[in-house]
Amino acid sequence: MPDRYDSTRRAWEDIWDEATIEVELESAAYARSRETINAYLPFLDRGDAHLEAGSGLSAIVITLRERGYQVQGLDYAVNALLTSRRYDDSLPLAAGDVHHLPYRDNSFGSYLSFGVLEHFEQGMLPALREAYRVIKPGGVLVLTIPYPNLIHRAVQWRRGLAGAGPLTDDAFYESAYTRRQLHDDVTAAGFRIELSQPTSHSFTLWQLGGLFREPGYYRTSQLAEKLGALLKRLLPWPFNFMTLIVARK
């Protein structure tokens, strides 16, 4: 397990070396990102301190701080933190492991995790229990995790027919969680779920390529946006890309 954990961390360091804060901030302003942010912001108290665990290049930390929220970031990819500090040396950032957070019990009004906990081969429950520890009584967990939507399942089925394993290059990258699996882990960590919402339907279509993509960093086309909005109304879970969970301690 330590070898896999370290290789995953190094892979993220390589990813962040190739990325820029400006592009990450641009993606945080995409329609699908704004929709997700606006869904969980009502649960955050402006008077509390909030932690984004797995903050990467700090795009969400910066975005929420611009909106008046006291958010600090933590990541185990130190190069991402250094890049963030060069962009804005006032950002409150720390190097650390989501499984062993360097904070006291009951320190934060919320714990934010966006597309992070699916990347650990041991599952998300150990990190969720650590999140529970540092959240104040009455505080919230805000979590997004990939969902095994119809397109995801079709890709896995096609790989199976070709004799390939379900994971790219037979190496672990991430897990996708059904609604039941996600609810079970979140409640097993001690939380009470307040919101469970499918999101980013346009990005599910982006994965098909072609007319659903525009040039740029994971940018969806207007067709993807319009069709995604329709799918959100008619088939919200089969075409869900990321499940948003808000759960209270």
Give the topology, please.
Layout: H1 2-18, H2 21-28, H3 31-40, E1 49-53, H4 59-66, E2 70-75, H5 78-87, E3 93-95, E4 108-114, H6 125-134, E5 135-146, H7 150-161, H8 179-188, E6 192-199, H9 201-206, H10 222-234, E7 242-248
Parallel strand pairs: 1-2, 1-4, 2-3, 4-5
Antiparallel strand pairs: 5-7, 6-7
Short overview:
This protein is α/β, with parallel strands linked by helices and 249 residues long. The chain is built from ten helices and seven strands. The chain has one domain: Rossmann fold.
What does this structure look like?
The chain has ten helices and seven strands. With 249 residues, it is an alpha/beta fold. The chain has a single domain (2-147, 175-202, 240-248), classed as Vaccinia Virus protein VP39 (Rossmann fold). The chain has a seven-stranded mixed β-sheet, with helices on both faces. Strand 4, helix 6 and strand 5 (135-146) form a beta-alpha-beta unit. 35% of the residues are buried.
Structure keywords:
single chain, 249 residues, alpha/beta, Rossmann fold, seven-stranded mixed β-sheet
The CATH class assignment is: Alpha Beta
Instruction: Label the structural class.
Output: alpha/beta
How many beta strands in the DSSP annotation? Answer: 7
**Number of continuous helical runs:** 10
